[in-house]
Amino acid sequence: MAENKPITKNVDWVVVLIYIACLGIGWVNIFAAVYNPEVHTSMFDLSNNAGKQLMWIGTAALLVVCILVIDYKFYETFSFIIYAIIILLLIMVLFAGSNINGSRSWIKIGAFSLQPAEFSKLAVSLAISKYLSDPAISLSRKLKDYYPILGIIALPAFLILLSNETGSMLVFASFAIVLYREGMPGFIPAIGMVMAALLIITLLFVKWYIAAAIIVIAGLVIWLMPVMTRRRGGLWATIIVAFVMIGIVFGVDFFMNNVLQKHQRGRIMVLLDPDSDPRGIGWNVIQSKIAIGSGGFLGKGFLQGTQTKFDFVPEQSTDFIFCTVGEEHGFAGTAVVVILFISLISRLVILAERQRSRFARVYGYCVAGIIFFHFMVNVGMTIGLMPVIGIPLPFFSYGGSSLWSFSILLFIFLKIDAQRPFTLSRG
Amino acid sequence: MLENRRFVIIGFIALVGLMYLLRLFYLQVLDESYSIESSSNSIKRVIEIPFRGQIYDRTGKLIVYNTPVYDLLVTPYKARVDDTLRFCQVLGIERHDFDSLMAAASAYSRVKPSLFLRQLSKEDFASIQDVMVDYSGFEFAKSSLRTYTAPTLANTLGYVSEITKSQLEKQEETYYRQSDYIGQSGVEKIYENELRGKRGTKFVMQNVAGVYKGPWKNGELDTMAVAGENLYSGIDLEVQQYADSLMVNKVGSVVAIEPKTGRIIAIVSAPTYDPNILASRYFSKNFAALARNPYKPLFNRPVMASYRPGSTFKLIQALIGLQEGVITPGSGFTHANCPMHCHNHPATGTVALGVMHSCNPYFYNVFRRIIYKNNIKNTFRASAVGLDNWHDRISKFGIGQRLGIDLPSEYKGNLPNKKYYDRFYGEYRWKFSNIYSLSIGEGELLITPLKMANVAAIIANRGYFYTPHVIHGIGDKKSVNPDYLIRHDTGVESHNFDPVIEGMVGAVEGGTARRSRVEGITIAGKTGTSQNKRGDDSSIFIAFAPVDDPKIAIAVFVEYAGAGGSAAAPIANLVVEKFLARKITNKALEERMLKADFMSKVILPGVKKPATADSTKKKPVTPAKPVVNKPVAINN
Questions:
Q1: Range in A40-54, A187-201, B221-235, B473-487 with the lowest mean pLDDT
Q2: Same structural domain, B136 and B251
Q3: Minimal Cα distance from B22: which residue of A?
Q4: How many folded domains does chain B comprise?
Q5: Is the per-residue pLDDT at A417 higher than 80?
Q6: Min Cα–Cα distance to chain B from A307, Å
Q7: d(CA A304, CA B42)
Q8: For residue B567, is it within any domain?
Q9: B22 touches chain A (CB under 8 A)
Q10: Which of A105, A245, A284, B447 is deepest in the core (most CB within 10 A)?
Q11: Domain region containing B82
Q12: Is residue B164 assigned to a domain?
């Protein structure tokens, strides 16, 4: 039976190789980012981030081995318990956590700090998968089936918000992909995108023009719809949608000024115009674009990056690690990284689709969605396509918590996937 | 149905990936501007200023060199001064100086070094260097100061100072930057391009706070600074300083030239000042004091001051007369039929005697014959033609034009021609009787001491000269400006000089300059007295020696000193003796000349009558000893 077969035979080696490649490239770039030309530090020196990251990689490898050894049913069975433990940790950190960079989200163990928020992604993924593994649940028909999911997400999100880690909270948006795959009507993500688009358009153009444009478009729709679909009732729906959109346009000001905090507002404004505050919030965006842009096609060479080496780019070994890749290895380097991520995520989607159990599929989509969201936001922010949101680039950024949580997240799925030939379909 | 949604999802993921790749391709490959911004962010060009070239005298002694000085820099965020009191004592500054300097430095930058104290001498540096080890955040930077071996040659050497705004704007190719130093006058200005050397450029990397982070590309693109070229001058420092001492409390010039080469042996502009005071950090204060001084010590008299040559000009008249053939060595003239006065002297039956006794009517007649040599009947026309002919002859002596010495602002002087008088009188409305004062070097003639020294050199050479110059060798190869190797002929034949030189020897041995004759050296000289409407006449003397093999030609001008024999001749002859014999035999004369004070006779502009000696007596500008231990706050 399955238990007799070595895990190495069934594990998806494509994903494992991409994972190893990411860790290797990441580690080299962390070394480059912290490298000080005056003090020739070693890559293995535990006093710098590169040395520490190597230690984290070692421990992550141990974790991976453990995950692969543990029975695959464990994760499904203990989903809610793992979720509960993480929630407890998140509550605990609010009271006992150490304050690092203004967010109270770290648990200090000796010289190292762990961030429970990083592990909440895993907990929520398992919990949602477990919940959706019930075949009676239908996201396309029953609204009440959404409530538990919203609850599963909202609880940790709220706790994370309390500890001031907005970035980690936004990651929960990535579950939209899973929900869409599992039957959520397409108009919901469409509405989300339209809202985001409206927000940006509103900040760029005069509101009355936008309102006028919406009315014109609505008029066109009403005029053309009978011709196209010959359906009735679309008239009122269109008018309502148009008015809601105009309402959003005028609500953006309220949202920007009253809902968002000052630094969040600044980050959105800077995304639209980095030069609006070049020495302040715009600094990160401008400097990271300079770093990446100055890399050229082949880059400046390993350890030759001046932007990253001399601290022009902030947080270079963590959130802005992609800048080091861009500066020292040029477009060749960044293209490799982008392709690695897109391949990894696509591969995960393909793997998820071939799962026989719904739990496994949902979980696979969760992993793909989370990694995709991190990739999209992190890389997007360094090249000025996304607002600056402090979330790490999976497997690349320095940091034990994020490396551990992503490794666990990924390998639980690989473990489940490895058992696929021996599981029976239940959904 | 729902399975098909995976295509939407994968499509979306791929779309984002593609978008990012395109964006990266644009940022990294297509848009070049980021590379430039990156360089300007982290790569800084540091200019290394080389040492200026040094200047040597004819014996190989250094005249100008560079003294390394030390600027004390502070990096505020690193600075730790626990016992401020001791620190201030060591540096010799006050507590409030310390506070204001630190505040200024911090205001500029907390992480970059700022100037704390500038131009500490080697001695000060040595004394505080050890103590400074106790205080972190302070470092020394080497720079250099122009230093002069002797307090002499101030105007000749010129000075170096920060480039002015207009100089900065006017420079043809952008070389200098703000706060760069540049030669402002004298040799420093003329030979600026040779002296300044080649600046080095270093590319260094700096971090976000502007802190130095090592060379860029391991210094591959760096260029080394090359020190400026040394200059070799014909100045004899010992003679120069001796001449300086003789000119103390006098206003005037001494110019001594080596006739065979045109090299300048000594060039005094009196009153003078110690050039070191303009090479200190008190430049502006000292410069302002010099500029305000009514005796104009910054006025380089040997090349800029103009006088009427007086009787010294008679030498040239005699030479032209002989060359034109209007007189012979044996020609004699009496005082009869001459509108000019003369003093009592034996009969002047030859050119030599005319020169020796400096007979005014004699040269009135010589000049008259030169002007009327052409046989034009109309005296107006004859004068016009004659004057232009005379003008062309005299021009060959370098009079009325710039000689081309390697010093800035050389004054052309004035040598009148027909056109010149036409402007005053109208064409053919003047004749010899209007211009005869030229015959004895008065009238509209204007010459500089340098030109008169050159005339002495021409006579010494019997007919030719080399352009007088201070510097004759540039750099290790001692290359020479080719202009200074061109022999200029005056068109007066060598034999015509004999009677003139005979007269000059006579003038020193038993004529107008007999009181300053030098035992053992035959000097040929000629006194002159330049009339001065403001007060006492200027005393002029030109000479060369030894007569058989001239080694030195000299011109001395002393303002307000009266007749040529009274001041200029003794000074000139003392300098000649010093140069040729290296000792002074006539100690009494030397003593008298050292003590002589003609400065008190100077009537300054705006002063109506001669003031008493006390009130106008001017002390030479005493060089302010630079006090190094005074803080200077700097604006960066």
A1: A40-54
A2: no
A3: A335
A4: 2
A5: yes
A6: 6
A7: 12
A8: yes
A9: no
A10: B447
A11: 63-148
A12: no
Query: Residues near A298 by Cβ (< 8 Å), separated by ≥ 6?
Result: A329, A330, A331, A332
Residue B56 placed within a domain: no
- Residue B250 domain-assigned (yes or no): yes
CB B499 within 8 A of CB B327: no
For the four alpha carbons of B111, B114, B116 and B122, in that order, the dihedral sign comes to positive
Domain boundaries, chain A: 2-185+260-422
- SS3 labels along B397-428: CCCCCCCCCCCCCCCCCECCCHHHHHHHHCCC
Spatial distance between the Cα atoms of A169 and A223, rounded to a whole number of angstroms: 43
Q: Which of B130, B148, B166 is the last residue of a domain?
A: B148
| Confidence check: pLDDT of B619 > 60 | no
- For residues B307 and B419, state if they share a domain: yes
B204 vs A: CB within 8 A: no
- Whether B269 has a pLDDT exceeding 50, the answer reads yes
What mean pLDDT comes out for the span A49-55? 87
Mean pLDDT, to the nearest integer, of B22-50? Answer: 79
User: Are the beta carbons of B9 and A334 separated by less than 8 Å?
Assistant: no
Last residue of a domain, one of B85, B118, B148: B148
Q: Do A379 and B13 touch (CB under 8 A)?
A: no
Q: In CATH, what number is assigned to the domain containing residue B596? A: 3.40.710.10
Vertex B523: Cα angle to B522 and B528 (nearest 5): 155
Give the three-class secondary structure for B336.
Answer: coil
- Residues B516 and B569: beta-carbon distance below 8 Å: yes
Give helix B33-42 / helix A281-293 axis angle, nearest 10°: 110
pLDDT reading at B609 higher than 60: no
Q: What CATH number has the domain bearing residue B76? A: 3.90.1310.10
At B176-187, the pLDDT tens digits run 876 678 889 899
Distance from CA of B218 to the nearest CA of A (A): 11
B454 with B321, same domain: the answer is yes
What pLDDT, in 10s, does the model give residues A194-223? 888 887 777 777 788 888 888 888 888 777
pLDDT at A230: 54
